[in-house]
Amino acid sequence: MLDTINVVFELENMVGDYIEVEVFDLLRKFFRRKGYYDLLKESDGKSLSIRLSYPRFFDNTNAYLITTKEECLEVNRVFIEEIRRFIYFDEVGVGVRSNGEVLLKWFEANVAIKIKRVDVAFTHILGKHDSFNGYKNLYQLLNNIYMKRNPASIPKNISVIGNNEVETLMFTDTQNVGAYNRKIVIYNQYRKFCDYCSKDPLQLHSILQKYPDLPRRVRIEASKRIRRKPFEVLDFMEFDIFNAYVQQFADDTLNNLFNKELFDSASKDRIEWLKETIKKEREYPNFNYQAFIYRFIDEIWDYELIRKAIMETTDNLNSAYQACSTIREILKIYEKATGIKFFNMKETFEKIQKDLIKIRGEK
């Protein structure tokens, strides 16, 4: 669940003493090392922006799933202890720095840690015969849900140009994706690893050996910019970041995306759109449902929606049942050929929703 955080190490109350420069240089050297953290940015010799990856502490990639607060506390404690040792001990391993104790005390007393962003990842496991792109119609509905809740936003997706296969969806609270305060990204984690390991197939094979469910993962990643009081160095070691944010982010994801009330509202809107479209199309000569389906295949989303639209716009029940039967068979054929699901969208939505409710309810 907890994935990465962006933290800033900031030197407070700077007066220009040499010890400030020395501590900052040591911190810079530490964060430039390869590890489960990355130096993102440094500013004016007094702050360092760091990305801290909780999964990468336990493994080399974020395929590892963090599931407990104990894991997060272990990362926090080891992270700070490693920094403290780096400051206190000579980096070539010959003993304590001549001024190691002074540097360490100054570091603990004068450096603040600010959490600037938190990323929490939830994982949905696809059905045996499902694919990430196969949920394309569900993504259409999620888009409508999110915009009902966040009318100023413009959700976006990243897809393959050649076949229009969806890889990533981005839901932000602003039209400018980069200026978000809150963001939910849904992406194909397996595809991300395929791209990352494109030049090293053995690495991908090794990851799949360790995480065989990776090709079936749908990654739902919630991010939020954080505004809270800075931590003293030693206090950060004991901060229960898991319980501070995981349940909160699950609740935000439920309210903004996997919202049952808005799901029902968006479904009704789509049924009304289909009803009006059917009425208009029937006015044309030689109307038939097979042609209608193929013309509006990207707008139908789920069999239940079109079935209700037909039942509510057809006076003759026998004609309505026959039309539904025809449409059902066409959608089954289309689903088999493309992998895009047209059945049980509500059940899929509710499964993800229940998983998030369970996470939100954990103590």
What would you say about this model in short?
With 363 residues, the protein is an alpha+beta fold. 51% of the residues lie in helices and 19% in strands.
Report on this structure.
By secondary structure, this protein is α+β, with helices and mostly antiparallel strands. The chain contains 15 helices and nine strands. The chain has helices at residues 18-31, 54-58, 69-88, 100-110, 136-149, 189-196, 201-210, 233-237, 241-256, 260-282, 289-295, 297-300, 303-311, 317-338, 345-360, and strands at residues 2-11, 37-43, 47-53, 111-125, 156-159, 166-172, 182-188, 217-225, 231-232. Strands 1, 2, 3, 4, 5, 6, 7, 8 and 9 form a nine-stranded antiparallel β-sheet that branches. A hairpin with a 6-residue loop joins strand 5 and strand 6. Helix 5 (136-149) crosses helix 10 (260-282), helix 10 crosses helix 13 (303-311) and helix 13 runs antiparallel to helix 14 (317-338). The protein is elongated. The mean pLDDT is 92.
* Class computed from helices, strands and strand pairing: alpha+beta
Shape: elongated
Q: Tell me the radius of gyration.
A: 26 Å
Unreliable residue runs: none
N-C termini distance: 14 Å
Indicate the topology.
Elements: E1 2-11, H1 18-31, E2 37-43, E3 47-53, H2 54-58, H3 69-88, H4 100-110, E4 111-125, H5 136-149, E5 156-159, E6 166-172, E7 182-188, H6 189-196, H7 201-210, E8 217-225, E9 231-232, H8 233-237, H9 241-256, H10 260-282, H11 289-295, H12 297-300, H13 303-311, H14 317-338, H15 345-360
Helix pairs in contact: 1-4, 5-10, 9-15, 10-13, 13-14
